[in-house]
């Protein structure tokens, strides 16, 4: 589930939380901000954990994923969906 959307244009980010007791495979999921969307790389989110999907570029880690602008800048006028 989406826990936090940090507005900040090209520096924005979306925090995803796995609130279940089981790992969640993000394969087949999309992070969307109409009309843009981004499919995260293969990623298994452990139970009770978070991962931050950054709008900009960077090297992915166990806690951070980078969309390289694929789902657009995060501003006050858009909605974000998973």
Tell me the layout of helices and strands.
Layout: E1 2-6, E2 13-17, E3 24-25, E4 31-33, E5 36-38, E6 44-45, E7 50-54, E8 64-66
Parallel strand pairs: 7-8
Antiparallel strand pairs: 1-2, 2-7, 3-6, 4-5
Care to count the β-strands? 8
Sketch the topology as an H/E string, one letter per element.
EEEEEEEE
Order of neighbouring strands in the sheet with most strands: 1-2-7-8
Question: Termini distance?
Answer: 7 Å
Evaluate the radius of gyration: 12 Å
Number of separate structural domains: 1
Q: Report the helical percentage.
A: under 10%
Low-confidence stretches: none
- Overall pLDDT, averaged? 90
Task: Quote the beta fraction.
Answer: 25-35%
Global morphology = globular
Count of discrete alpha- or pi-helical segments spanning 4 or more residues: 0
- Major beta sheet, specifics? 4 strands, mixed
Structural class: mainly beta
Overview of this structure, please?
The protein has 82 residues and is mainly beta. It has one domain (2-66). Helices cover 0% and strands 34% of the residues. It has no helices and 8 strands. The chain has a 4-stranded mixed β-sheet, with no helix packed on it. A two-stranded antiparallel ribbon has the order 3-6. The chain is globular and about 35 Å long. The mean pLDDT is 90.
């Amino acid at each position: 589930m989406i826990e936090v959307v940090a507005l900040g244009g090209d520096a924005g980010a979306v925090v995803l939380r796995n609130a279940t007791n089981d790992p969640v495979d993000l394969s087949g999921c999309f992070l969307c901000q109409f009309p843009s969307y981004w499919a995260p790389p293969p990623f298994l989110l452990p139970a009770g954990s978070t991962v931050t999907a950054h709008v900009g570029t960077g090297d992915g880690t166990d806690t951070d994923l980078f969309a390289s602008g694929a789902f657009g800048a995060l501003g006050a006028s858009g909605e974000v969906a998973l």
